[in-house]
Amino acid sequence: MNDAQSHQSISREASWGYDSRMISYIQNAAAHGLYEIRGLGAKRRLPHFDDLVFLGSSLSRYPLEGYREKCTTKTVLGTRYATKPIELEIPITIAGMSFGSLSANVKEALGLAATAVGTSTTTGDGGMTSEERLSSKTLIYQCLPSRYGFNPDDVRKADAIEIVIGQGAKPGGGGMLLGQKINPRVAQMRTLPEGVDQRSACRHPDWTGPDDLTIKIQELRELTDWEKPIYVKVGASRTFNDVKLAVHSGADVIVVDGMQGGTAATQSIFIEHVGIPTLAAVRQAVDALEDLDMKGNVQLIVSGGIRTGADVAKAIAMGADAVSIGQGILIALGCNSETYIQQGEHHSAIEDYAAIGTAPGFCHHCHTGKCPVGVTTQDALLEKRLEPEVGARRVENYLKTLNMELTTIARACGKQNIHHLEREDLVALTVEAAAMARLPLAGTPWIPGWQ
């Protein structure tokens, strides 16, 4: 290489700290004086369940035959105090996503799918719609800081209550619903003006700490005659202490949402830079339950970036009782698909993606209300692109696939019950994952930072 070629190579060398994305970010900030708002979850690579693998059976373990030997997936949640715990056929639940962020057709589709496979779905911010209550055999009612749409009569109609302290995509931050998604029905349910941006509170209005949370839990128990399980959901950050405080406050079930969790709309800076990965959060949550000798007494649901049956199996092996899925469910419905289905025919949505400045596979424009496939919209025409029966069938297929993958792995590890999966069945592929999950690095007995 001569001097001219060498100089040209150096002059085109990208900067690690100021790559094209960072340059674009700074230029946009300088031009507009505004931060970016978007939907979905973190895009950067984070330590994840992909960094773990199972130790399948060989001579030292005896596998189960998949076609002749059963592997149980039944899951019971809320056994601590509730007189009517939740009984599910599978340990995979549908996370809370609001009517407002999602269309009424989508909420109905989720209820139909959850009922078909024997699991639960969750209301989200803004209250309960008649569509999701009628279609959902098991429905969890969320109590959020905003109290938008909160109705004691609907609380009694629910099968469990989930008190949301925070979300994985934005622990410490409140929700957003931009004006273009606040149609007359959403506005009425939330007691808001139509077409005006809504920002939810980042903390509950009637408590300032765990002692007040205890009072709120007792109020909800009295409201539901102690029948319904009370979940407490936290965004993964100070997970060990948060889980302990939630248990002391009287929760039946803890939901821990890692930073890979999704959102309908929030600041990108939150999504990418606040919270800890789900992988690290699971271990801290389980440590807290074991430290209190409450493992099994209080159930643990893990969410945030759960996509496959392998992810489900790994979360359960690490100590979770169940998982909750949001983004994966949206993608199963058709999010980021090139086409939408109406009356059995596929129609191209590529031009609609281009109109909002994106393309299938890259869209995170949930906040705009212009979802090309009718998932995250309140537009009267766009929402028709998601037919409830079609969406329900796709989500049902997705959940069934995950459950089959889960039982396949459990059988390979010699388990007759998926809840018998254990940490001993796992090893890590990276030093970071080994340290976070407190599992040995594959091929060694070494747990970085612990041994």
UniProtKB/TrEMBL annotation:
Which keywords, in A-to-Z order, does the entry hold? Answer: Oxidoreductase
Q: Does the keyword Oxidoreductase apply?
A: yes
Keyword Oxidoreductase carried by entry: yes
| GO-annotated molecular function | glutamate synthase activity
Domain Glutamate synthase intervals: 78-337, 362-415
Its source organism is: Stenomitos frigidus ULC18
The record's annotation in CDD domains points to: GltS_FMN (cd02808)
**What family does this chain come from, according to its entry?**
Belongs to the glutamate synthase family.
Superkingdom classification of source? Bacteria
Q: What is this protein called?
A: FMN-binding glutamate synthase family protein
**One Pfam family matching this protein:** Glu_synthase
PANTHER family, alphabetized: ARCHAEAL-TYPE GLUTAMATE SYNTHASE [NADPH] (PTHR43819:SF1)
Organism classification: Bacteria, Bacillati, Cyanobacteriota, Cyanophyceae, Leptolyngbyales
| Gene Ontology biological-process annotations | glutamate biosynthetic process
